[in-house]
Amino acid sequence: MSRYLCLSLVLTLVVGMSNLCPVSASQAAADKKSKTQQKSPKTGKIKTLFLTGGKVHNAKDIGDITQAALEKTGKFDVTRVHEDLDALLADRIAPFDLVIFYWTLGGINESQKRGLMNHIAAGKGYATFHSGADSFRGDPDYRALVGGHFITHPHYRTYQVSVTENDSPITEGIDEFMITDEQYILDFDSNLNVLANALHKGKAMPVLWTKSWGKGRVFYSALGHDPASVKQKMFQKTFIRGALWAAGWPVKD
Question: Which is more confident, 199 or 16?
Answer without folding.
Answer: 199
